[in-house]
Amino acid sequence: MYGPQVIVATQAPASGWATASLVLGILGVLGGWCLFGIPCILAVIFGHLGMASTNNGTKSGRGMAVAGLVLGYVFVLPMIALTVLTFAGGLAGATAP
Predict the structure, then answer these.
(1) Which DSSP category does 10 fall into?
(2) Other Cβ atoms within 10 Å of 33 Cβ, number
(3) How many angstroms from the chain centroid is the CA of residue 92?
(4) Which among 30, 33, 62, 92 counts the fewest CB atoms within 10 Å?
(5) Is 0.90 surpassed by the pTM of this model?
(6) In whole angstroms, what is the distance from residue 53 CA to residue 59 CA?
(7) Partner residues linked to 60 by β-bridges
(8) Rounded distance between C-alpha atoms, residue 77 and residue 55, angstroms
(9) pLDDT tens-digit profile of 5-35?
(10) Helix ranges restricted to H, the chain
(11) More confident residue, 36 or 18
(12) Backbone angles phi, psi at 15, to 5 degrees
């Protein structure tokens, strides 16, 4: 009599770059306006690194990298524009007579 066969399926480890991209993308959406858009810029950079590390299939997390890229790209320009307008308004107010 033979016992049941055990099949072990292992999953590739997730890319740290992809995870960081998603976390920073979410952080940029929630609080990027008070952090001068830095999380959005880092989400884009880490997203590209995550996409590169998941290219050959040894690491998983391609969806997280794509999500971080989308969040980063969608919110990076408004965050930078808001930062520039905030500093420009502060400078204009400081130099007004």
Answers:
(1) -
(2) 16
(3) 33
(4) 92
(5) no
(6) 7
(7) 14
(8) 27
(9) 888 888 889 999 999 999 999 998 888 767 8
(10) 16-31, 38-53, 62-95
(11) 18
(12) -75, 130
